[in-house]
Amino acid sequence: MRRILGLALAAATLAGISALGAVGAAAASSPNMTRDECTAAGGQVTARPYAGYVCALPDGTTQSIT
């Protein structure tokens, strides 16, 4: 019984660490940029219905415009 509880606690701890890491990575990988930064990087500012403006970069990625 103690072994099962230990395994469950370890799994829950690892899941929590993984979730925090994913949130941090998402925040670090998609920063907002300005229109000027977008055009300076060779991107094109486009409007999305109900989602505001985004910058479409030449490498195929998009970033939010602030």
Automatic annotation (TrEMBL):
Signal recorded as keyword = yes
Q: Which domain of life is it from?
A: Bacteria
Signal peptide residue numbers? 1-21
Keywords for the protein's UniProt record, in alphabetical order? Signal
State the protein's name. Uncharacterized protein
What is the species of this protein? Streptomyces albidocamelliae
**Taxonomic classification:** Bacteria, Bacillati, Actinomycetota, Actinomycetes, Kitasatosporales
